[in-house]
Amino acid sequence: MAKEFLSLSAQTGEKFSDKIPEDILDMFRSVPIIQERYKNFELQEAFVEVQSICDNCATDEHDSFCTVNVVLTALGILLEGKDYVTDKDKELI
Fold this sequence. Notes:
Blueprint: H1 2-12, H2 24-30, H3 40-55, H4 67-80, H5 87-92
């Protein structure tokens, strides 16, 4: 799902989409994680790439539902567990 949002964002050039539901982060956390279904090394590489995009955005422009943050959270959940929260989301709390 996050991959689809990222693809849509790349096509439109927009960081936000009306198609991203407000409960998306909770939805990601509720999906069972089956580690055999993905390659950890590739997830790490993807996480680092998306994290660098997020880091280049100003904190005062951050929104939990921007496509980059949604994808970063999805990757973080797969790598670190269901309690993962992006650094910028932590700053908002």
